[in-house]
Amino acid sequence: MIEKQLDESDEGAAVLAAAQDTSPITDQEKADVLRKTDWRILPMIWVVFGMQYADKSVTGVGALFGLIQDLHLYEIKSVHPTVIDTTRYSNAVMIFFVGYTFGAYPLSLIAQRFPVAKICSLYVLLWGITAILTPLCTTYAGIMVQRFILGFLEGGISAPFLSIIGAWYTKREQSFRAPFMNSAPGFFALIFLGIVYGVVLIGNPLHAWRVIYYFVGGITIALAPIVYWVLPDSQRTASFLTPREKFVANISSHRFKWGQVQEAVTDVKVWLLLAATFCFVSPGGATGSFTGLVINKAYGATGRQSLLLLMPLATISGLTPLLVGLGSLHMRRGRIMILLINSAVAAAGLLMCWIAPLNSKQTLLGGLYLLSVYSGPYSLILGLAVSNVSGATKRTTVSVMVFISVSLSGITAPYFFVTGAPRYNTGFMITMILILIGMVFMAIYGLLAHVENKRRDIAGGSVDHAFEDMTDKENQGFRYVI
Fold first, then answer.
1. Is there a contact between 287 and 409 (Cβ–Cβ < 8 Å)?
2. Beta strand pairing status for 75-78 and 83-85?
3. Which end of the chain lies in a sparser environment, N or C, as judged by fewer CB atoms within 10 Å?
4. Nearest CA among 8, 345, 394, 328 for reference residue 172
5. What residues have CB less than 8 Å from 374, skipping those under 6 apart?
6. CA 92/CA 149 separation, integer angstroms
7. How buried is 80 (Cβ within 10 angstroms: 0-12 exposed, 13-18 middle, 19+ buried)?
8. How many CB atoms are closer than 10 A to CB 18?
9. Cα torsion at 177, 183, 216, 367 (round to 10°)?
10. What is the distance between the alpha carbons of residues 44 and 40, in angstroms, rounded to a whole number?
């Protein structure tokens, strides 16, 4: 039975209250609803999350095809010997994440307050327009403005999507769905690299970055109306579910609660997740914008040849979240252990990149491929941010905080690679150290979660108020996954 004190303005409570006299939910009903939900929601989230990555990472690929030269994103510090400063290029990479940081919270709150699918489709349309207009930029200042606006708009997508996963799936189901969402960047990068391999032949290859932007911007704009019509706003309005199935589905709240915001920003475990996130996504500064340049110089490869060498990296980056997600799905406990093992592999790859000389092509390339498994720990953190946080507003707030941490890492990581081109030893060394520090943060997080679970077991808190909009601290029947 649903408590009478539940606010009837809360749509989750309203749906449940209307279904008080329904018969018990069967396992078959749960399976049917899960299957229908997966087919409607996951593909849409996966595609949009992948296009988000493609739109923001065009800069890294464009660097191989004239973007740095055309927009003057470099400075020649010395001719004899030749010393080229790429601080401007690092700034162009960084400013996207500044915009993302400013846009993440306000745009995410708007998405929670209003129909989420409709709002997100608007964000997709606007950032698609911003991307397709990029070739109009002819100066360093112009690309800086464009990247800031693009980051601001894309900041409104990630946290709402993570909240959608939290609202529609159980904790066990989330352990695979969140990593599945984060597998999109890797696989989209693979598809994107293959398409770009042909697209750059249109026109002058030395200025092909403009054609790339036209392509990804046009695809993004075309995606917006699909998001509008296919992605449901909530369980209550989901046309693909029957009234009974809406009851079976998890029910979320759309009310904003300041108390849950306060709890989110004072939760020690949340801050450990944020610190670990900052550390684990730092390799994105290497793989996203500088890997292509390293490969280009190490192998003396052309731009198109560099695209081919980047494809295995994209494949690994896409497969790793799926593998760690499947492992988490079939293990009652062990997510953090999987995360730590995965992180150690990424650190080993960074070590190889740090110590290998530029003429040691196989070692350097092998290190780059190994470090691309960093997508695994990040995916597991996304899953923990959903599974171990309860309360609609708290979950939205924590999701935003996680992606702001990603942004802050994105702001700082490019500056690890300002000097030392094309070898970037210092950048790889700093990134490896951050991965090791992140492992320490997650070990502490796991210990705190384990201690809290034991405390609740001893205290006898066993009733999980799953259908009420309570936080994980308020709900003593809640247990943290580790």
1. no
2. antiparallel
3. N
4. 328
5. 280, 281, 283, 284, 287, 343, 346, 435
6. 12
7. exposed
8. 15
9. 160
10. 7
Question: Whole-angstrom Cα distance, residue 262 to residue 471?
Answer: 11
CB 321 within 8 A of CB 382: no
pLDDT tens per residue across all 482 residues of the chain: 333 334 434 555 555 555 554 567 778 888 888 899 999 999 999 999 999 888 877 887 888 788 888 888 877 766 666 666 778 888 888 899 999 999 998 998 898 788 889 999 999 999 999 999 999 999 999 999 999 999 999 999 988 898 888 888 887 888 888 899 989 988 988 888 888 888 777 767 778 889 889 999 999 999 999 999 999 988 878 888 887 787 777 655 556 788 888 999 999 999 999 999 999 988 875 566 667 666 766 666 677 777 788 888 888 989 999 998 888 877 767 889 999 999 999 999 989 888 887 777 788 888 888 888 988 999 999 889 888 988 878 888 898 899 899 888 888 887 787 666 666 778 888 999 999 999 999 999 999 999 999 998 888 766 555 556 788 888 888 889 88
